[in-house]
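Researcher: Following up on the earlier apo prediction. This time include the ligand. It's S-adenosylmethionine, with the SMILES given after the sequence.
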Amino acid sequence: MAKQNDIFKKGFDEGTQIKLHILQKYLQEWLPVFLKKKKKFWKDISLYDLFAGEGKDAEGVNGSPLIMMEELMPYCKTISNEKLRLNVLFNEFDKKRYDLLKQNIEEKRLACSNSELCPTPKGCILNMVVENQKFKRLFSEWFPKMKQTDQLPRFMFLDQFGIKQITEDIFRQLVSLKRTDFIFFISSSFANRFAEQPEFKAYLNLSRQSFDPAKPHHCHRVVFNYYKQLIPQGTEYYLAPFSIRKGTNIYGLIFGTHNPLGIEKFLNICWNINHNTGDANYDIDNEKINPNEPALFPGYDISNKLQVFKNELKEKIINDEITTNTQAYRFTYDMGCLPKHANEVFRELRNHKTISRDFRTCTSNVHTLTEEKLK
Ligand SMILES: C[S@@+](CC[C@H](N)C(=O)[O-])C[C@H]1O[C@@H](n2cnc3c(N)ncnc32)[C@H](O)[C@@H]1O
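Model: Understood. Below is the ligand-bound prediction.
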């Protein structure tokens, strides 16, 4: 495998920039949910970046920790006025990178303190800790505290190299935290290539047969399904993948949340990147759909993923397997689709008088909907 760990010197490539774009967009959605709400049921809000890197690349492009700091800046006055505790934990294992990270953070803090957004120029309002530990050790140290306070809002970004860090145990622990949203990165091509090796199995219990040799570009979907089946039956939990192609390799993000609002926001970001499937920065199903050039025959403009979703939703409603609007929207998120896609199905069924009226998630989501019968 190509040596990955000089990404800072080489400058962030397109794949890395997509990853950072998704992180930034998600923070822009996540932070106001907890910081703009009039009535807050929490004083502590926490952000974690546990593979933080150096802070920026050689060309000065911000990496995840500096993106987090920049996205927090507009909220510093609220944090100060409302006496909130905004906890930020950065971690980087490599000592040289850790030193650079600390330096870049200090520079950023200085620049922030000179900005009019800063309410406390003499000392940063953020409760920031920068650690220099191995991820697994740090996580096992912090996890019991997180578990005790798992009603508090948390967001975690876990940007590992390779596949070794987000093991089944770590994944289960993440999912068990009630108000934690996370995004983690994984080298799915690597999993595809090495799945049979005993050393690999110590990290992920995936077999080579799970991967379709004819579809290496689907390998992140396979890795995603592996994590998905680890979610305990009966738990309301939402997970979504995003595949990223860099050269001949496929990497990917996996997003997790307990909250329908969280998954809707994440999926919106992904569908804005890819209007056909919403789950990759490339034509993952090789469909060559061009939204600017309508196909000659109707039906050829819609991706297979959307078509399968619409057919399944329709069938489930007709067969009474889905009987309420919230069930329908949950199914929609589970299929990686958006409420607007479900609404198209509702409209069609209403026109055929299969259901009595339209249902819509308003600007937000199923969270604010009352459960109503479809028929
Ligand atoms: C992909 S880079 C992170 C890039 C960063 N998120 C950014 O946007 O700039 C992964 C980082 O994790 C660090 N790392 C590798 N193994 C680690 C471990 N076991 N614990 C903590 N950090 C680790 C590497 O030194 C590297 O800086």
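Model: Residues 304-368 form one domain.
Researcher: Noted. I'll compare it with the apo version next.
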